[in-house]
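Why show two proteins at once? Because comparison is the fastest way to build intuition. When a single record is shown, students tend to memorize it. When two are placed side by side, the eye starts asking what differs. So, the first record is below.
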Amino acid sequence: MDLLFLFKIILILGTFVAFYALIRNLDIAKIILRYWFDLLFRK
């Protein structure tokens, strides 16, 4: 019973960490895309 509870806690913490990393990576990807867009369409 305790092992299952520990597994659930680890799974929830891992989900939060993965979600945070995904949001950070999306932010970085937006910056990179904006940079390339400005580079290509600058006149």
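Second record. Ask yourself what differs from the first in the token line.
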Amino acid sequence: MVFSFKYTESGGLSNKYLLVSYDSATKEIKASTDMTGSNLVQKTLTDSDEETLRASFKGDRFFGFDANYQAGNDLEKDNDSNVLSFTLILTMGDKVHTVIWSNKSKEIPDELTQIKDKIKGMVSSKKMI
């Protein structure tokens, strides 16, 4: 079954950017910290690494998440430039689901934060970022 995802993280005071993508067809995980992709790093994952990532999505649970988790109303008052935005697109078999949120979003499922941490942990442990 096809398993792929694309995760992006951007914004904040330092205007950071991170893109991580994975495709089970090639077993390639790719990471870039530059919007142009000029510093793209790619590595081949082991079956065990792929299973770890696949398991972090907890089966079909991800497909039940809202598509967009809005920030609270206090964001406009604060005019906070330290907002990090996240996008995660998952393809599993013939299902595709996108979730968008920020570090100011309210009521984010714990599982979503765990998935984000698992993805970032994987590329960090492989010294890709």
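One difference worth noting in the second protein: The chain is about 25% helix and 35% strand.
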